[in-house]
Amino acid sequence: MTHCDRRTNHRRGRAAVALTCLLALVSAACTGGPGGAPQDGQGKPAEGPIVVASGLDVTGSGSVRQQLIEEWNRRHAGSKAEQAKLVELPGGADQQRSQLLGALQSGSARYDVVNLDITWIPEFAEAGLIRPMPVGESGATAAEGDLDFIPQVHATTVWKDRSYARPFNTDVGLLYYRPRLLTAADIKADKQPNDHWTWDQLYSSVKTLGLNPVRRDERAGWTTQLKQYEGLTVNTVEAFADAGVELTDSEGKYTSDAGKLKKGLDTLLDRVDRGRVQPAALTSDETASLTDFAEGRAVFLRHWPYAYGALGSLMRPQDYAVNRLPGKAVLGGQNLAVTADSPRAEAAGELITFLTSPESERCLLDAGFAATRASVYGSTAKPCWPRVAAALRPAGDAPKAAATGEGAPQGQGEDERAEYIRILGEALAEAVQRPRTPYYGAFTQVLQSHVHALLAAERPDTDEAAAKLDKELRDVFAGK
């Protein structure tokens, strides 16, 4: 956390100069003068390529991000300075964040565009590592940006009333379930339009099914991601949101207290009661929980949108379905930002515009990501770029679970997929954010540590846990 304190003033000054150049479009050091050719710091044409740093593609769809970069390059084949290159960073989210912070602070890596987890925007913006985005021509304010972006999703790009990125691919929690098991138990599985499960209905269904697992090889009512990593933070924030507990305001100021935290922790404990949740959930991440569901060890699964494509390669179409998550669902995803030190800022901004266009967003949706634009979920959505669409393979090269029945799984049909897209669009429109703070890395580690210890305890004491968590969160959100 101290890197922000040490470098903030210096970085803010550099970011302010960079923004002035970008908006005025007159300084050769920022925009390159006539013709818009990118320039370096001495006014000379900046050499390409435009380097995009990103995490790994989890959809298994043939790297749609790489395919979109290649489409951009085909459209700018006559300009070496405008060619782009994708650099995929290894490791998990925490490792990628550390790599990007270190590279941008030291200048050791030449990145022009960074694909940031939505929770990192305040930290990178506060440190002056990324540039505010210019206001578009839609008539929207800087904080609103392009009005086609789903409002809740675009809000993840904003810090202190300024937008620092464009939404690239988003995420939201969804509920996957086994409809034939529910039907066999005379539980209504086919939901009506605009209707979705409540947690009480899920609890009632688990009781009707008579599921009370003791060992991880037994079938449970549901499973999720409770391992001590970001998945645990997401599940905890969703439980807190259902209990009406908000940890911070829009500018990262702590707004909770021990009493509120206890209410949220009690809600989480009730949700993951050992008679309802798969015992393996306490050590499960996305891959493990998806495997448990696909192999029959859970009737319900909380997971991200890419699981829909993954299940198509693991299960028969009639054996799984999807609906909105009971209660509140947390947003995930990544946003594209221009780095403060990029000598190709104008070209980098144009690349971001292309990568977040309606056509590109449709490519992302087809590949298994959730799109960030509302129009992509409508009946008149623009199709994916033809050459990108042709290069993609069906999403879902996921964990190798054993499918049941004869023949290879083929995925669900067009009607089922259209219903899935409708459900996904509705879930995104009502999703909630994790705390907005430049100290998110410290926050999530503190939360995970306390919550995981509580879940693992034989006799969990939420009064004590809430008091300790409250004390540490006050320090974290104050930057101590």
Query: Tell me, what is the CATH class of one domain?
Result: Alpha Beta
Question: How do the strands line up in the largest sheet?
Answer: 2-1-3-11-6
Number of helices: 18
As a whole number of angstroms, the C-alpha radius of gyration is: 23 Å
* Computed structural class: alpha/beta
Identify the CATH architecture of one domain: 3-Layer(aba) Sandwich
CATH superfamily of one domain: Periplasmic binding protein-like II
- The tally of strands reads 11
DSSP helix fraction: 40-55%
**C-alpha end-to-end distance:** 8 Å
Unreliable spans are 1-38, 137-141, 395-408
H-E string? HHEHEHEHHEEEEHHEHHHEHEEHHHHHH
Q: What would your notes on this structure say?
A:
With 480 residues, the protein is α/β, with parallel strands linked by helices. The chain has a domain at 2-171 and 332-389: Periplasmic binding protein-like II (D-Maltodextrin-Binding Protein, domain 2), CATH 3.40.190.10. The protein is built from 18 helices and eleven strands. Helix 9 crosses helix 10 (258-271), helix 9 (230-242) packs across helix 17 (440-456) and helix 17 (440-456) packs antiparallel against helix 18. The radius of gyration is 23 Å and the shape is globular. Strands 2-1-3-11-6 form a five-stranded mixed β-sheet. Strands 8-9-7-10 form a four-stranded mixed β-sheet, sandwiched between helices. Strands 4-5 form a two-stranded antiparallel sheet.
